Each structure stands twice: as C-alpha cells, then as structure tokens.
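Tutorial handout. Part one gives the primary structure; part two gives the three-dimensional structure as tokens.
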Amino acid sequence: MLVGLALMAVPLLIAILTAVLEIRDLADTGETLVIQGVTGARASQALFGEINSLERTARLHDVLSDPKDLDSYRTQDERLSTTRAQLQHLTTSAAQHTLDEFGELQASIRASVVRGGGAPALAPADLSTRFAQLTTLAERIAQESNAQVDTEVAALQERTLDARKQLLLEAALLVPLALVAVLVLTIGVGRPLRQLDRAISELGQGTFTNSIAVGGPHDLQRLGGQLEWLRQRLLDLAHERNRFLRHISHELKTPLANIREGTELLMDGAVGELDSNQREVAAILRENGIKLQRMIENLLSFSAWQTSSVGLEATEFRLRPLVKQVLENQQLTLLSQRVRLDVRVDDVTLVADRGKIRLILENLVSNAVKYSPKGGTIHLKARAAGAQLVLDVADGGPGIPPEDRGHIFDAFYTGRAARTTAVKGTGIGLSVVLEFVAAHGGTVEIVDGEYPGAHFRVTMPIRATSGAEPAPPATKAQAHAA
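Part two.
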C-alpha cells in the first residue's frame, strides 16, 4: 500500500519540484535584472555629470594654466573612466562599441588637455566640440542601456508567460490524476478500513461469532488476519471460561441437592423433633442452601447466555404470582434481617421467558436484601406503561458509589459496598439482570433521588417475541443513570 501511495505521489512531487525550480529561476533573473537596471541608470546619470565637471575643469585650466586645475582634471578623468568601465560590465555588444568610441574620444581630449606625448593644444571651440561629441556618445550609451533593459524585461515576461502556461498544463494533468488517486484510495482502502472498524467494534462488544476477513492492500489484509487470530483466541478463552463455569456449577448441584434435601428432612422432623436452637440452625442451613442454589443458577444462566446457546422461551404468565414466589424464597432472610417489604405490583400478564424474568427478580431482590440495613424497607413496584413493563426495586442501604456506577453491570465485579458485607457474592447477579433484560429488548436504569439506597428500574416490552434468537452481549449503553 505504501509503495502504491509513493508511486502515485511521484508525478505530483516532480511537478512541485519543477514549479519551485522555475519560480526560483525567474525570481533570480528578475532580481538580477532590477539590480543591473538600477546600477546602469545611476551610472548613465553619473556619466553626464562627470562630463560637465570635466569640461569646466578643462576650460578653467585652458584659461588660467594652473597646475592645480590640471590635477583636478586628472582626478575627474579617472572617475569618468571608472564609470565607463562599470557600464562596460553591464552592457551588451552594441553598447560596448559606443563605449569604446567614448573611451577613444575621452583619451584624445585628455591628451590635448594635459599635452602629454607632444599632443597639440586644442582651441576653445574645438574643445567644446569634442565635449559635445562626448555628451552625444553618453546619450547614446544611456539609450542603448535602456534598450537593453527593455529587451531583457520583455524576455523575462515571455519566460514568465511560458512558465505560467507550463504550470497550468501540469495542473490540468495532475487534477485528473489526483481524482483518480483519491478514487483508488477510497475504493481500495476505504472499504477495508470500514471492515476493520466493524470487526474491532464487534470484538469490543464481545461478539466473537463472525469471522473477520479484510480485503484491500496487503498491509490491511495482514492486519485483518491478526484480528481474526485475536478473535479465535478470545473465542477459545470464552469457551474455556464458560466450560469451566458449567463444569463447576454442575459438580456443585449434586451435593447441593443433597444438602437441600437433608435440610428439608430436618425441618420436617423426619429424624425427630428439633428444639428451637436446632431448628434455628436448620433454618440457617436452608437459607444459605437457597442462596447457593441461586448463585449456581446465575452461573449456569450467564454461561449459557454468553455462549449464545439459548434463546428466549416466551410464554404467557401473570407477573404477580411470580413476584410472590420470589419473595417467599427470600422470606427467611427477610425475617432474620427484620426487613420490611413495600410491594405494589399491578396484575400484569406478560409474554416473556418466565425463567429469565424469575432470575431478574431474584437477583434484584437478593441485591436489595443484601444491602438493606436491619429494620430497613425494600420497595418493589411493577406497573404497565403502554406496551412497556416498568419494574422498580429499591432498598434503604448506602446506595451505589459514583466510582462503581460504571462497573456494577460488569461480570464478576463486586463494588466497594459488597466488600463490607458478611457474605461476598459472585458478582454476576446484576450482569445477568442486564443480559436478560436486554434479551427482552429492555433497559436497566439507576435512578437517583427517589429512595435513599440503590434504585434499579427495568423497562421492557410486555410482550416479547417467542423463540427469539439470543441477543448480542448487552453494553453499558443499555444500563444508564436516570
């Protein structure tokens, strides 16, 4: 993929490099032209001033014959020669010829003024004529210099126009190429990226049943292969965990059934009448046997649901008798804790999985009993709201700490309050509630302000679909604070 991107970027990089070099060359040429034009103009203007000064000094020397005037003439003549030499470096061949004529005439005037090498002295009229010729040559030099600058400016403008046309042509060719590259990237990379996004989302949600296959470039295919390997590893770990849970739970059910049966025999007096102390001990054994049975059922239900091996077995039943049955199973614990019940359940007929609704109720009520103080009150309300069932279970305990709210529905998580209770649970009760409520198309909320302790509200359809497929694992988005 990287090689393909690099190959598509080569024409663009070449065009950019060409444009940069061309623009820099034009900028350098323009800068040189400006410097030469300004220097030539200044030298041409200086040429006229130096000619005038040289003529005045020559006339003064011709009249006064003062040696000082002769020295001044030589100095000004050298300055004029320097200016002429500077112009020779700036001008072309046409102006060079005129500068040569200018130098020859300057030399002849110099020889006549200083009278070196036996040169005859010039008459004032001839001297004026010579300097007039020198001024004429200077004017021609200035004109030729200006013409040279105009020619170079025109050439620079032509180069700039050609460069602009070339850049426009390159841009016209590169725009379709860029569009093709974007289209290729969108088709070749966009779809595999969406596949990767979907695969990562499913892994994050705990859905390991869909195999991961990513097309597109080799790098993305290799990444998809790594995700598929990760999915297989997570799936194997999930199967191993659930197999372990099922094995342990089934191994515990047989001795637990014997314990329950023996406890019931003791309570019925099958081995003789029990005194009050013995009956109290048997009641404790019975109560904790029921708790242990509920924990094992939670483990089995959670394991089966996580492996998506069961769906909803929806039947029609009345909610009120089911609530009564659940509360009767908690009766011994309620009496020992002296916990009062505030039960207000409408006579609602549900079409749902009765076993899973029973586990929802048992776990919510068991959680409320667990955290209720002695002499506290548990509130259990159920009512119909249109096509939805609204179930509220609240206790008078310490409530849910803010740091636990994001985790209490996580499997095997026990909150801070649970660590202070006498009997520590498995940490899957509320996870089972969330999973089974979500399976019925409902939500679980944590409600604040209505009761002093923890307050859970379940909202779910009164009529669920019979034989529904197992729902995907519930997310925390389905359990929120109201």
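Part three, for discussion. The two ends are 48 Å apart (CA to CA). The domain at 311-481 is CATH 3.30.565.10 (Heat Shock Protein 90).
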